[in-house]
Amino acid sequence: MKPFIAAAFTLCSLAAGPAAAAGLTLGMALEPPHLDPTAGAAAAIDEVVYGNVFEGLTRIDSDGAARPALAASWTVSDDGLTYRFRLRAGVSFHDATAFDAEDVVFSLDRARAETSTNAQKALFEPIEHVRPSGPLTVEVTLKRPTGDFLYSLGWGDAVIVARESSATNKSHPVGTGPFRFARWVRADRVELVRNDDYWGRPVALERAIFKFISDPAAATAAVLAGDVDGFANFPAPEALDQFRREPRLEVVVGTTEGETILAINNARAPFDDVRVRRAISHAIDRQEIVDGAMFGQGTPIGSHFAPHHPAYVDLTGMYPHDLARARALLAEAGYPEGFAATLKLPPPTYARRGGEIVAAELARIGIRLEIVPVEWAQWLEQVFNGKDFDLTIVSHTEPLDIGIYARDDYYFGYRSAAFDANYQELARTRDEAARTRLLRVAQKLLAVDAVNGFLFQLAKSGVWNAKIEGLWENSPVQANDLTGVRWVD
Amino acid sequence: MTLLLARRMLGLAVTLAAASVIVFIVMEVLPGDPAVVILGVGAEPESLAALRGELGLDRPPVERYLAWIAGLARGDFGHSHTYAVPVLELISERMAVTFPLALIAMALTAAIAIPMGVLAARLRGGAGDVAISLIAQLGVAVPNFWFAMLLVIVFAVSLGWLPAGGFPGWDAGIGPALGAFVLPALALALPQAAILTRVTRSSMLDTVAEDYVRTARAKGLTRNAALWRHALENALIPVVTIMGLQFSFLISGTIVIENVFHLPGLGRLLFQAIAQRDLIVVKELVLLLAISVVVVNFLVDLAYLALDPRLRRGHHVMA
Questions:
Q1: Is residue B316 scored above 80 in pLDDT?
Q2: Domains of chain B
Q3: So what's the pLDDT on residue A380?
Q4: Chain A positions touching chain B (beta carbons under 8 Å)
C-alpha cells in the first residue's frame, strides 16, 4: 500500500510540475492608479483588467473588430434605434453572484448618470434608456442611430460590473472574465489567477502577474535577467536591438492607436491658409522624425487613422517631401521669406525629440520656430483649453477618434462642412462596408485639407520569451488581452 | 546623566516641532492653492471647491496646522488623492521595504568602512594603505545609480545569482526577501562606505598620535591591541558623526536606488507622489523623512554619551 501511495504522490507532483509553470509575468511601464476601468482615464487600468478580469457586452479583438462577449447575440431594429441583446446564460461574477440583465442595466445607467465618474461618458450619451426584458435580455433604445454603438460597448469604460461589488472595484475588481483578481502589491505588481468557473473557453495560463517597472534601464535588466517574461509595450526603443540579439527573446513590433501629429492652429493666421498647411506637409520628412526621435519605431501616416485598421488608406504620398514645392506654396500664400511661429511641446519624448527635428525641417523652408517646452498641465491650459498656440506635437491615443475633426471647438480649430456631413452619415451607418467607405472619405478629406501635419503612428514594441504564443502584435485597444496566451515548447 | 538626557529630549522635541512647522509652511502655505496643484490647472471649479473643502483649506493656517498635528497623533495621515487609500496604509506598506533596506545599508557601510579604515591606518604609508585609499577615492566619485546598474548587469543579468529588482514580499520567505535587498543595499552602501573609510582612517591616524596610545604601547600592548582596545573607541566619535549625516544621504539615495531596482519603498512613493502631484502624500512623507533624520541624529548624540564617558559627567570637552 505504502509504495503505491508514494508512487501516486510522485505521479501527482510530476503532473503538477509543468502545470505550475503555466504562469506569465508581464512587465508594464506605468502602474494604474486603481483597477476600475469605468472610473478612470488611465490606459494602465485597461492594460491590466480589460478582457482578463472585466468583460463588456462586446469586446474588441486583436484585429480591432467588436465581437460578442457577454452579449451572445443581438438584433437591431430597422430604424437603428433599438438594440435587443440576448445575454449569455450561466455566467457569474468572481464573487459568485449571478450575471443577468439587471447587471447590464445597472452598469449602463451608472456610466451615463449625472454623477458618473466614467472617463468616456460621451460613449453613453446616445442612450435614451436601458430596460431588462427578461432575466437574460436587455433592450437599449438610442436617441438617434449610432453606427459605432456596438464598438463603443467594447471599450474598457463600458464593461459590466455588479451592483454588489462596484463600489470596491478600484481596489478589489470583481468581473466576469477568465482571470480573477488575486492581489495588488502596490508599486510592485498585480496578481491574477485563472477563473475556473469561467463561462467561456478556459485559458491556458494559470496565473498572470503584471509587474510595474518604469525605469527603462531597470526594465531592460528585468527582461534580460528573466525577472519578467516580457513586455507587451517596451518603454525604451533603444534597447530593442539588444533583445533582437538574444535567441531566447522575440521582438514583435506592431502599431497602436496613437496618431502622433504636428497639430496646427487652423483658426490662426497664417495657418488658416491651406497653402501654408500644405507647405508644412511637404517640408516634413516623416522617416527622419521616426528615426531621429523614436529609434526607428513608428509607422508614418498621412491622415488621422491607424494603419492596422481594415479601413486605412495610405495617404503618406499625397504630400511628398519636396522643399521647392513647399517654398513655392509659401510664396503663393504671401510668405516668400517664411515667417516666425512657436512650437509648444509637452513632456513625452515623441514631442520633445520629434519637435526639434520638425523645427529643423521647417527652418529649411523659412519657417523659424521657437520651441516652448511645457508640462501637461500647461499644455492643457494653454493649448487644449485656451487654444493659444501656433503649432504643437501630441499623440491621440483613443481608438477610432477621427471624429474629433467634426468637433467645431476642438483645439486645432478645423471646420469643414464636407467633413461634418460625412461624419454625420458615418454615425448613422451600421453596415460595415458602407462604414469603411465613409471612413476612407474622411481620411482623404483631412489629407486634402492638410489639417495637421500627420507624422507617425506610435509603435507597440513588444518583447517576450520566444516560447510564448498569443500576445497581440498590435494594440487596437489599450489592453493586454491574455486569453489566448500560452507557453509552447 | 538624567538631566543631560532630559535636556537632549527637550532639544529633540523642539527640533521636531520646528521641522513640522517648516514642512507645513513649505507644503501648504507656499504653493498657493494646494487644490490647484493636486487637480491641475484645467480642473473644473466645482471639483476644486470640493477638494478645498475636503482639505479644509478655508480655515486659517494656524488652525490647519494644529488640526494636522492632532490628526498625526491620532494616526490620521489623510487620504491619498491618487491611490484613494489612507496615507498611513501606503506609508506602512512601503516602510516594510525601505526601513530594512536602510538598516542593512547602514550596517553594511559600517561593516565595510570601519575595518577598512582601521586597516588603512594600521598599514599607513604601505601598499595596502595606498590600495585602500585609491579604492575609496573611486567609490566617492562613483554615482550610486551607475554603480547599481553595474551590479545588476554583473550579478543579475550575466550571472543570474540575484534578481534584477523588485521585492517579492516578506510572505515569500526570509530568503527571497533578503535576496532582493542584497544588490540595492550594496549599491547604497559602497559609495557611502568609501567616504566613511577615509573618515575612519584619518580619525584613527589622529587618535593613534595621542599620548595615551603611546602609553598603552609603553605598557606592553601590541600595536593591534592598542589599536582595537583604546584607539578605536575614541576614533569612532567623528565616524559616528559622519554616519549620522550620511543617514540623510542614504534616505535621498533610496529614492534613486528604489527606482533603479523598482522596489516598492518610500523613496519610490515620494518620487511617484511628486510626479502625480499628490500633495498630501508628499507632505506626510517629507515630514516622516525629516523626523527620521532628526531622530537618527539624536541617536548619534546618545551614541556620543555611550562612547565618551567624559560627556556623561556633563564636562564640556572639545570634540
A1: no
A2: 2-73 (no CATH), 91-313 (1.10.3720.10)
A3: 80
A4: 31, 33-34, 170-171, 185-189, 211-215, 217-218, 221-222, 224-227, 376-378, 380-381, 384-385
